[in-house]
Amino acid sequence: MSREANNERGELTLTLDGAAVGLRPSYEAIHAFERATGKGLMELAQAALAGTLSAGDTAIIACECVRAWGRATENKGYAGANTTRIAELMIEAEGGFSMSLSTIAGMLAMATTGGYTAAGELKPTAMKKTTESAPAVG
């Protein structure tokens, strides 16, 4: 059931070598990139948002999330993604490393604030009911 990432569904993507590649921050992916970087999710998110996350750490995070997306969509090519190649493609992409870091920062921010399920699926946006009248006083 291999499929491309869908921006209309709110899935974050990196454009690598002309293809929209999905990012899936599942618990498995988060655990893997925390182990590989030696840093926790909050620390990585803060560094990404500050623009100080290294290219190496950014590539590790991207690669683990691409692998998770590849497994979830049964895309063997992306499920077996290579960190070095992902890093090269991020640098060569339109907008370069800066654009990739911006996307990764957004994904990490959402992961730290409950925007994804443990499987890495985007949670539906919460709807808040509003009313134009005052609440009934009992």
| Biggest beta sheet summary | 2 strands, antiparallel
**CA-to-CA gap between the ends?**
54 Å
List SSEs in N-to-C order.
EEHHHHHH
The stretches of 5 or more residues where confidence is low (pLDDT under 50) are: none
- What percentage of amino acids are in beta strands? 5-15%
The shape is globular
Total of helices: 6
What structural class do you assign from the helix and strand content? mainly alpha
Helical content, roughly?
Answer: 40-55%
Radius of gyration: 17 Å
Q: Order of strands side by side in the largest beta sheet? A: 1-2
Task: Tell me, rounded to a whole number, the average pLDDT.
Answer: 88
Say how many strands there are: 2
Topology record:
Elements: E1 13-16, E2 19-22, H1 27-37, H2 41-50, H3 55-72, H4 76-79, H5 83-92, H6 96-112
Antiparallel strand pairs: 1-2
Helix pairs in contact: 1-3, 2-6, 3-5, 3-6
InterPro entries: Phage_TAC_11
Label this structure with key terms:
two-stranded antiparallel ribbon, globular, mainly alpha, 138 residues
Walkthrough of the structure:
Strands 1-2 form a two-stranded antiparallel sheet. The chain has about 140 residues and is mostly helical. The longest helix is centred in the middle third of the chain and has 18 residues, at about 55-70. It is built from 6 helices and 2 strands. It has a domain at about 25-110. It is globular, with a radius of gyration of 17 Å.
